[in-house]
Design a protein that fits this description.
The protein is α+β, with helices and mostly antiparallel strands and 286 residues long. The chain has 3 domains: 87 residues, Ribosomal Protein S5, domain 2 (2-Layer Sandwich); 42 residues, no CATH class; 142 residues. The protein contains 9 helices and 6 strands.
C-alpha cells in the first residue's frame, strides 16, 4: 500500500501540483487538502480515490503557485470617496490640517475586499486530469513495490517448503529414538520376563500417535500451495494472504508443540522466522 505519486502542470495562470502519499492501513483512510473553491468537488474525488486506491492511509494535497498577475483585492471606490469626504469635514472642524486620509481609509471595513473565487469548470477538468496522473504514478510505484514483495513471498514460502522436506529425516529418527528410550527405561525398571511385548507395542503406538505431526505437515503443504495460488490471482489479495499466513502459523506452532525432538524443533523455529517476515510484508499488500 505504501507509495507516492505526483503530477503538476499549468492551469490557467497558475501552476498546479497534486501530491499523493500512501501508507499501510487496514481500510482506506483518506485525507484531502485543497483550495476552498474546489471543496464542492470533494465527494466526487473521494469516490474516484476509493475505487482506485482500495486501502491505505492516503494524504492528497492540491496546491498552486500564482504567476503574480492575479488581482486578489478589490477597492470599493465609491465607499472610499464617501469616507474621504466625511473624514476631511471632521478634520476641518477640529482644526487638523495634516491628516493621512489613505492610511485611515484602508483600515475601514469594506473598503478593501478580498475577491471570492468561483469554480471554473474548464480549469477543474485540467486539475482532475492532474489528479488522475498523480494516482497513476502512485499505482505505478505500488506495482513496482508489489513485484518486489511478490518475489520475496515466493522465496520465503519456498524456504518453508524446503524446511518441510527437511523434516522427513528427523521425524523418522525421532520415532526410533522414542521407541528406544521407552524400551530402555522399561528394561531398567521392569524385569525382562515380566514385560508384555504386545502391550508394550500398543502403548508405544498410542504414545507415538500423540506425537504424530503428519496431518499438520499435510495442512502446512496445502496452505503453502494455496498461498502461491492466491499470488497468481491478481490485486487486492492482502487480507486473504494474511488469513492464509495465520493458518500456516497455526500448523507450524502445532508441530512445534508436538516436536519432542531438538532437530524437529530447530526446523520449526526456522519456519517461524520465515513466516514472521511474510506476515510483516503482508501488511503492505492491498
Amino acid at each position: 500500500m505504501t507509495g507516492y505519486g505526483k503530477a503538476e502542470g499549468p492551469v490557467g495562470t497558475r501552476k498546479f501540483t497534486v501530491e499523493i502519499r500512501a501508507l499501510n492501513s487496514k481500510q482506506l483512510d483518506l485525507n484531502l487538502r485543497m483550495p476552498s473553491m474546489y471543496k464542492e468537488k470533494e465527494m466526487g474525488m473521494r469516490r474516484f480515490l476509493n475505487s482506485a486506491l482500495v486501502r491505505g492511509k492516503v494524504d492528497m494535497t492540491i496546491y498552486y503557485e500564482s504567476d503574480g498577475a492575479e488581482k486578489k483585492v478589490q477597492v470599493n471606490k465609491s465607499l472610499m470617496a464617501s469616507y474621504a469626504e466625511d473624514l476631511k469635514e471632521v478634520a476641518e472642524n477640529i482644526g487638523q490640517e495634516q491628516v493621512d486620509y489613505m492610511s485611515l481609509m484602508i483600515r475601514i471595513p469594506e473598503v478593501l475586499r478580498t475577491e471570492r473565487e468561483e469554480l471554473d469548470e474548464n480549469e477543474w477538468k485540467d486539475i482532475y486530469a492532474l489528479i488522475k496522473g498523480a494516482v497513476a504514478n502512485l499505482q505505478e510505484y505500488r506495482a513496482t513495490e508489489g513485484k518486489a514483495t511478490e518475489d520475496d513471498f515466493r522465496a520465503r514460502i519456498g524456504s518453508i517448503e524446503a524446511l518441510y522436506e527437511e523434516l522427513e529425516g528427523p521425524i523418522t529418527q525421532r520415532i526410533q529414538n522414542v521407541k528406544d528410550r521407552i524400551k530402555a527405561n522399561l528394561e531398567e525398571f521392569v524385569d525382562q520376563d515380566k514385560i508384555d511385548n504386545n502391550r508394550f507395542e500398543q502403548e508405544l503406538i498410542y504414545f507415538l500417535e500423540k506425537l504424530d505431526i503428519s496431518e499438520e505437515r499435510q495442512r502446512l503443504k496445502s496452505n503453502c500451495d494455496y498461498f502461491k495460488e492466491v499470488l497468481e490471482t491478481g490485486e487486492a489479495q492482502g487480507k486473504k494472504l494474511g488469513f492464509i499466513s495465520q493458518e500456516i502459523g497455526r500448523e507450524i506452532n502445532t508441530m512445534g508443540s508436538k516436536a519432542n525432538d531438538s532437530d524437529v524443533q530447530r526446523i520449526v523455529v526456522k519456519m517461524k522466522d520465515e513466516l514472521e517476515k511474510i506476515k510483516e510484508q503482508v501488511l503492505n499488500v492491498l
